[in-house]
Amino acid sequence: MSNAASGLPVGRGLLYLIVAGTAWGTAGAAASLVYRTSDMGPVALSFWRCAAGLVLLVAARLMRPHAARTAAPGPLGRRALRACAIGLGLAVFQTAYFSAVSATGLAVATVVTLGAGPVLIALGARLTLGERLGGGGAAAVAGALAGLGVLVLGGGGATVRPWGVLLAVVSAAGYSVMTLLTRWWGRDGAADGSATTVSAFAITSLCLLPFALDEGLLPHAAHPAVLAGLLAYIAAVPTALAYALYFAGAAVVRSATVSVIMLLEPVGAAVLAIALLGERLTLGTLVGTALMLGSVSGLALAEARRARARREEPVLV
Hints:
Radius of gyration: 19 Å
Mean pLDDT: 77
Strand content: under 5%
Order of helices and strands: HHHHHHHHHHH
Number of helices: 11
Number of strands: 0
Low-confidence stretches: 1-5
């Protein structure tokens, strides 16, 4: 079925994904500032990120004109099943990633999670959606993964621990399931980006709540106003805005392309680390960023050309 079934042009979907990936990259820097200014743990931060993002998304939907509020297509039971599946995938993605960071360090957890994601998604899209990656797509994925490795591991000093690597693979699997399901339902016009994001955040918040309570839900901070501002930013930009754009874009763009475009996250994080957190600009950062941006640009242009070719195909009656 045409991507038009979801009502969003592929070109706009690509733009949404680029903005979402860039916004995701700011979450790491904001989270590091949260940890510096309070004793909040990673699971509690993830819970508040989703719960506050959910409140913002619901408020945004309520402020839309009544005519613009469209319920997600399909029977109520099917919509609930979609919400649970995507929400659980999001919960596994976030929680397993934070646990992997704790077990094996940020660099290895990031490389394994974001590196395994495109591979799992490409295989899953081929088996379940019939989406062929092609030679150019495979080269772009390989270039992006190479750039990711150079960018994140270029500084050296990484420690590989098997348990942490396993958790990172579990995180990648959760991300892959979330992406593939969004694309599957989007091809049939059964995905509404706003409704999907709201329902997924509701399920994810419920899943994370008991773990956040165990870790400590209410943090102590020397400057509560600073902490509140950081949490508000995390909830608004890299969460509510970014995930709404992500779910809308992932419904119309091929899954493998989605996974590579979202590798913009570590690029944005590296730029912020240099600009705001005082980290040094290294050759590894430059080379890794160039490889990843080149791969993302190549896949995005190929996806736009493919969509344009489909629109220009003659209709046989």
